[in-house]
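Following up on my earlier thread - several people asked me to post the actual chain instead of describing it. Fair enough. Here it is, all 136 residues.
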Amino acid sequence: MRHELDETRFAASVCRLLDHGSENIDARLTGKLYEARRRAVARHAELSLATYSLAGVGQGVFRSMHQHYRGILALLALLTGAFGMHVWQENREAEALAEIDMALLSDEVSPNAYLDQGFMAWLDRLSQHDDDSLPE
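Reply from S.P.:
Thanks for posting it. Predicted structure:
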């Protein structure tokens, strides 16, 4: 709140100084200042119309994209990271399945034994007991 009051006082003092100083400007300089102001206002109006015209649509979009390039780069980084995580997760799952397959193929027990319900019940009972109860 205090900052706003300081800015208001500063703006008022600048306006007083400019008003006081404008009384001492000669007519030739006043004419040049008026002409410069008229050109600046005309240029501003021209740019505003170009932004809203059909030909200026691309220019306005480009300017908007240029102003928001950080957001666009952050979005691209996020999408790249999400895609990388997806690929990494897929590779992990494929490696886990390959490891299971290799364990089954290198095991002394035939794959048909795993289809036997009695064998599965026996494995469950063994897994519930201590490791000391495993047969050698």
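The chain has a mean pLDDT of 76. That should answer part of your original question.
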